[in-house]
Amino acid sequence: MPKMHPDLHDPDHQPPMPFAAAELYARTVMGWAQAPLPESIAVTRDVSFGPERLQRYNVFAPRAAVNAPVLVFWHGGGWTNGYRDYTTFMARHVVALGLVLVAPSYRLAPAFALPAAVEDALLLLADLQHRLQQFGGAVDNVYLAGHSAGGHLAALTALRTAPRARAGLRDDMIRGCLPISGIMDLHDPSPLPGSLEERVYTTVLRDCDPLQDTLLSPLYWTAGNRLPFVLTHGGDDSPRVIKSNRRLAAMLQMQDGLVARNELAGRDHFQSHTDLDDGAHAWYASLTSMVAHASGQAR
User: Fold this and answer.
1) Dihedral sign (CA 99, 101, 102, 104)
2) Nearest-angstrom CA–CA distance, 155 and 146
3) 75-105: pLDDT as tens digits
4) Of the candidates 126, 25, 99, which has an alpha carbon nearest to the alpha carbon of residue 279?
5) What are the residue ranges spanned by the domains of the chain?
């Protein structure tokens, strides 16, 4: 019988980044992914949006949903590892709010360096544009989110309008973005040897091209933004995440879209996501408020 979920030693996936906090995070959220979901949730797994093994997504939807808002949530893992099942624990809370949750995988570095994951984000949305109705979702009411590297993918996809247009996406498809502990600036003028910042240049960027660091950073794509953003990160998050989210919030505030930044006191890079195991977390209230605001504008 096939496994419902991968485990941390699945040879088809790379292991978490080699430090204790990442390992604990991965084991925690993968453990939560094994818990049975309520019967009220319709689950569809391993939907393909491309020929590669990791071009797949899971869908969690209210049963009998029709034209429900949709949350796309990309997992983290430094663009080199991670699973779409990192998102599964959120399903009961997102669906309870009346939304369809889409949890995608994407091609990972170094086998598929950036911008492969960014390209996959667009391929996914193009696929969803044609399939959301079969899952009960509304193609003109989609919200983007993710944790860590997934937050980077969500923000970059939301801010870069020209690639969305080239991918054939509707102008009114994306209604807002709520990244968590996203890495909003890949640029580092002098990364320390062995650091995660150095891994961006040695492992993550295609051909190790340093000029791609700004091109693939959400921070540099804020001009003209009209989408609402809620940026969330831990108060004890990594310095790169804290600084880049503060700078991104300041840049977004110069544009027309509504923006809020929530700094979670005493929470680190991984707790900013695992804390969402609590359905009363303020992030879900932000999501509900954003959906309600967008629905009011549509009327």
Assistant:
1) positive
2) 9
3) 999 999 999 999 999 999 999 999 999 999 9
4) 99
5) 24-298
Predicted local confidence at residue 256, as pLDDT? 96
CATH superfamily of 24-298: Alpha/Beta hydrolase fold, catalytic domain (3.40.50.1820)
Is 32 in contact with 48 (CB distance < 8 Å)? no
CA distance 139 to 67: 8
Q: What is the pTM of this model?
A: 0.93
Residues near 109 by beta carbon (within 8 Å), at least 6 away in sequence: 79, 80, 116, 117, 203, 204
Among residues 75, 154, 87, which one has the least CA distance to residue 121?
Answer: 154
pLDDT surpassing 50 at residue 7? no
- The helix or strand, by DSSP H or E, that contains position 158, with its residue range, turns out to be helix 149-159
| CA gap 240, 114 in Å, rounded | 19
Tens digits of residue pLDDT in 36-72? 999 999 999 999 999 999 999 999 999 999 999 999 9
* Residue 53 contacts residue 83 (beta carbons within 8 Å): no
